[in-house]
């Protein structure tokens, strides 16, 4: 019997505050893993690469899958680790970019996609927080569409979803830790 995973995903709407919550969890001593997509975009911009979502979306999504796989393989199984997005997010993006809208063929096995903790935390669309920058060129309407695809994907995979309220970062972190009995 496989032990319950301690790899917890924060997913949801781009620009909804995931990274800020992760920073708070890290300040409390928890292991965290930054979003694969942001790391890839930063690297591609610095090196003149083309695996960017606005240049080569499928190439970008494949890189996200590879990075998310490596991130998951690297974490300690007995340690709680909080991930800013994961394999489900990357796989959902790939299927969307390839025109599958969550029904196309998956680049990941079901076992891989279900390897995170059963509870996933979602940041909802929050227009007051949303901002574009050099790494996030997606408009808010597309971010909301992405949020809907991700909710559908996580639900279909049997995850229990907690949508975080639109409150301060400390309250969001406390809620996550309380739901995981880590407070």
TrEMBL record:
Domain of life of the native organism:
Bacteria
Query: According to its UniProt record, what is one Pfam family this protein matches?
Result: AAA_28
> Known Gene3D superfamilies for this protein?
P-loop containing nucleotide triphosphate hydrolases (3.40.50.300)
Q: Which residues form a coiled coil?
A: none
Describe the location of the NadR/Ttd14 AAA domain by residue ranges: 8-172
Q: Which InterPro entries does UniProt cross-reference here?
A: NadR/Ttd14_AAA_dom, P-loop_NTPase
**Entry protein name:** ATPase
Q: Which organism is it from?
A: Gordonia jacobaea
């Amino acid at each position: 019997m496989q032990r319950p995973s301690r790899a917890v995903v924060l997913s949801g709407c781009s620009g909804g505050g995931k990274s800020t919550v992760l920073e708070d969890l890290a300040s409390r001593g928890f292991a965290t893993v930054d979003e694969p997509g942001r790391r890839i975009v930063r690297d591609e911009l610095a090196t003149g690469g083309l695996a960017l979502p606005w240049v080569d979306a499928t190439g970008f999504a494949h890189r996200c899958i590879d990075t998310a796989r490596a991130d998951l393989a690297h974490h300690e199984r007995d340690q709680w680790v909080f991930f800013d997005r994961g394999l489900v997010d990357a796989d959902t993006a790939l299927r969307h970019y390839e025109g599958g809208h969550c029904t196309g063929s998956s680049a990941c096995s079901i076992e891989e996609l279900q390897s995170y903790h059963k509870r996933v935390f979602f940041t909802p669309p929050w227009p007051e927080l949303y901002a574009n920058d050099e790494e996030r060129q997606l408009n808010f309407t597309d971010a909301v569409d992405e949020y809907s695809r991700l909710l559908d994907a996580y639900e279909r995979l049997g995850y229990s979803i907690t949508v975080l309220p639109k409150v301060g970062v400390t309250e969001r972190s406390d809620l996550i830790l309380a739901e995981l009995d880590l407070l």
